[in-house]
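Whiteboard transcription, Tuesday session. T.W. wrote the C-alpha cells on the left side:
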C-alpha cells in the first residue's frame, strides 16, 4: 500500500513538473510565483490537474441507484440556471515546489549550462551522510549485508559454518548499523550586485520587469552557489545602497547619472569582495537615458578599469520607457564589442524577460 502511494505521489510530481515546464514562459513573464514565495519553496497555480477522490454520503440518503424510480429512467440533475456557454472552465490547483527544483526546471527549459565558479577562497559547509557503520543502532538502520558478512566470518572462525548447508544465523554481536558521518563540503563565494535607475523616466512597470527578472536570476544563481549574497544600488543623479524592499518599491524622480552607480559598485567590490576570493555578478537595469555623453564615457572607463577585471560577467538590461533615449546600450555594445564578459539585453516588455534571462545566463560564467 505504501509503495503504491509513493508511486502515485512520484507520478503526480512528474505531472506537476511537466505543467511548470509547459507554462514556464508565462510564469516568468507574469511573475505569478514571486508573491507565493516562501523561504525554500514557492506555491504555483498549476492548471488542469484534477485529483480523483471518493466522496462518501449517508447510506440512507438516496441517490443514483437507490430509492424509487424505474429502470432506465434518466437521472434528474435539477434545473440549470443561465444560458449555455462554449468556453471551458478554469481549474487551478496550488502546488508547492522547491526553489532548487524550480531552478533545475528553468535550467532545462532555457538550456542553461552549469556555472563554472572561479575564485580561490571557499566557504566550508557541513553535510551529514549515512556513510559510516557502527555496532549499535535502531533496526530501521540495520545494514543487512554487513551484518551477514560479520555472521559469516564468525561462523567460519568458530568452525560452525557448514558449506553443505550454508545457513547463516546472525547473533547480537554480528549486528551492524548505518551511521552518519559529517563531511565538509566546499562552497564557492558569490555575490550579485543589482543596480537600477530610479529616475523620473523609470515607471512602476519598468521596475516590475526588473523585480521579476531578478527573482529568476536569484533562483538560478542560488542553485549554483549555496552562500549567495546580494547587494542593491539605486540611482538617479546620485547612487545609494539600499535593502531589497527599498530597491523594488522606491519612487524617485530627477535626472540620471549612471556613473554614480558604477563608481559605488566598484567601491563595494574593492572593499568587500576581492576578485581572487569571490564570484561577482553585477546587473544594471536602466532605460538607457543618461545625463550626457561625457558621463557615458566615464561609465565605460569605470567598467573597463575597475569592474570588468574583477567580475565573472557584467550584465546590462535596458527596459523601454516612453521618455528614455536608449542610447546607453549602444555605447556599451560598441565599446565592449569583443568582450565576452559583457552581456546586454533589451527588455521592451514582460514577454521579453524569458529571452533576457537566457542571454544573461546562457554562457555559464
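and on the right, the sequence the group agreed on:
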Amino acid at each position: 500500500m505504501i509503495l503504491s502511494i509513493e508511486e502515485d505521489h512520484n507520478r503526480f510530481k512528474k505531472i506537476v513538473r511537466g505543467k511548470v515546464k509547459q507554462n514556464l514562459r508565462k510564469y516568468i513573464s507574469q511573475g505569478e510565483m514571486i508573491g507565493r514565495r516562501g523561504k525554500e519553496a514557492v506555491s504555483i497555480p498549476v492548471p488542469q490537474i484534477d485529483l480523483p477522490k471518493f466522496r462518501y454520503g449517508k447510506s440512507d440518503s438516496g441517490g443514483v441507484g437507490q430509492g424509487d424510480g424505474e429502470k432506465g429512467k434518466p437521472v434528474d440533475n435539477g434545473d440549470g440556471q443561465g444560458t449555455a456557454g462554449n468556453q471551458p472552465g478554469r481549474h487551478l490547483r496550488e502546488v508547492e515546489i522547491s526553489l532548487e527544483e524550480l531552478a533545475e526546471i528553468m535550467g532545462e527549459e532555457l538550456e542553461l549550462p552549469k556555472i563554472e565558479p572561479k575564485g580561490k577562497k571557499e566557504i566550508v559547509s557541513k553535510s551529514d551522510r549515512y556513510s559510516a557503520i557502527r555496532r549499535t543502532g535502531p533496526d530501521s538502520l540495520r545494514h543487512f549485508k554487513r551484518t551477514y558478512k560479520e555472521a559469516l566470518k564468525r561462523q567460519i572462525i568458530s568452525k560452525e559454518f557448514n558449506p553443505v548447508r550454508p545457513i547463516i544465523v546472525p547473533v547480537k554481536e554480528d549486528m551492524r548499523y548505518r551511521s552518519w558521518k559529517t563531511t565538509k563540503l566546499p562552497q564557492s563565494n558569490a555575490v550579485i550586485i543589482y543596480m537600477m535607475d530610479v529616475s523620473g523616466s523609470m515607471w512602476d512597470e519598468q521596475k516590475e520587469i526588473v523585480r521579476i527578472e531578478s527573482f529568476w536570476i536569484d533562483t538560478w544563481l542560488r542553485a549554483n552557489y549555496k552562500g549567495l549574497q546580494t547587494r542593491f544600488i539605486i540611482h538617479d543623479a546620485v547612487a545609494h545602497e539600499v535593502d531589497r524592499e527599498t530597491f523594488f518599491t522606491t519612487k524617485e524622480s530627477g535626472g540620471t547619472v549612471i556613473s554614480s552607480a558604477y563608481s559605488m559598485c566598484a567601491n563595494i567590490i574593492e572593499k568587500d569582495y576581492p576578485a581572487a576570493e569571490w564570484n561577482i555578478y553585477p546587473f544594471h537595469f536602466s532605460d538607457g537615458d543618461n545625463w550626457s555623453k561625457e558621463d557615458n564615457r566615464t561609465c565605460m572607463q569605470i567598467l573597463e578599469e575597475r569592474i570588468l577585471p574583477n567580475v565573472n560577467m557584467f550584465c546590462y538590461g535596458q527596459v523601454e520607457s516612453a521618455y528614455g533615449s536608449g542610447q546607453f546600450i549602444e555605447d556599451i555594445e560598441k565599446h565592449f564589442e569583443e568582450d565576452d564578459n559583457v552581456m546586454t539585453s533589451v527588455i521592451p516588455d514582460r514577454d521579453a524577460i524569458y529571452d533576457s534571462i537566457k542571454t544573461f545566463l546562457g554562457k555559464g560564467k
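Someone added at the bottom: The CA atoms of residues 33 and 182 lie 35 Å apart.
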